[in-house]
Amino acid sequence: MPKATEFIDEIIKFISELMEGGYAYASEGDVLFDVARDADYGKLSNRSAESQQGEGGEAASKKRSPGDFALWKAAKPGEPAWDSPWGQGRPGWHIECSAMSLHFLDGHIDLHIGGIDLRFPHHEDERAQSNSVTGNEAVTAWLHGEHLLFEGRKMSKSAGNVVLISDVIERGFDPLAVRFCFMENRYRSQMDLSWQSIAAAADTLRRWREKYARWRGPVDTDAARVHKKIAAIIADFANDLDTPRAMIKLREIEKDQSLSDGEKRLLFEALDPLFGLELTRAIEIEELPEGAQELIDARMRARGNRDFVESDRLRDQLALLGVEVRDTANGQEWRM
């Protein structure tokens, strides 16, 4: 966890390399990046260099172009300052990120993550200065997450609606329910989280863990079919982290009557490390009274045959044994 204040010498060296390459120029104690020298400037944020408007006033008078940005700022009263070849001053707001990351990551970054609000100008400027020093794309992939709302409003301290994981736990919810909710939304689409969605996710996680604990018996496995389902979900993750599509496939496994219990159990075990939802977490499950499982199976067959009179009769019999049966979009469910 490097600190910019402890990296000043390397930052000055980085700026000097940009000046030597003709990508930057000194002006009245400042050093500015010349965006006109970077033909790709604006590519990350989908903007043209001509459309950029930088600082106004005194700062603008130092620039060759309005979009030029500061690599080094001349000292001002009350600000921290360091010695440099251009006089006392401090680094600009973007340069330390390039200098430190390229230093510690051996000149290349595989995945650069940040919020959508950082794409411009911060990441656009970082890309320009990094690529100018390395001579190629310094970052393989940029990933920008959209803003998160909570119950229709942006979370902020002033609005009093900041929600922490500790708040989720205090309400009795599994904190992985929040991860579940995030994965049902595309990372680059704005998301509106709510207590209702967290509660629903927690219920689904609990149901899946209970079902996993009951999916026992011989593993009658169609290996090709199992591997095909795993590959399809991995492909969704590889396609720009399309976790919502992957979550749909995970939900379908639960309801897929063509899969045996053993196959479903194998799929949960294979996919759990990818989703990180602890689907195989050991839980205590309630045991059915003697004879109840046979009634549950018979009721499922009756509903499949659309014999609702028999289905209701079997439900009443189960109720006498203390078993409540519900019909849901995910099929027949029971609890004591």
Give the gist of this structure.
This protein is an alpha+beta fold. Helices cover 44% and strands 15% of the residues.
Structural commentary:
The protein has about 325 residues and is of the alpha+beta class. The chain is elongated, with a radius of gyration of 29 Å. Strands 1-2-3-4 form a four-stranded antiparallel beta sheet, covered by helices on one side. A three-stranded mixed beta sheet has the order 8-7-9. The mean pLDDT is about 90. About 45% of the residues lie in helices and about 15% in strands. The chain has twelve helices and eleven strands. The relative contact order is 0.07. The longest helix has 20 residues, at about 195-215.
Q: What share of the residues does DSSP label as strand, in percent?
A: 5-15%
Q: Give me the Rg, rounded.
A: 29 Å
The tally of helices reads 12
Oligomer classification: single chain
Q: How far apart are the termini? A: 52 Å
* Order of H and E elements: HEEHEEHEHEEEHHEHHHHHHEE
Structural class of the secondary structure composition? alpha+beta
Give the low-pLDDT segments: none
Helix content: 40-55%
Number of strands: 11
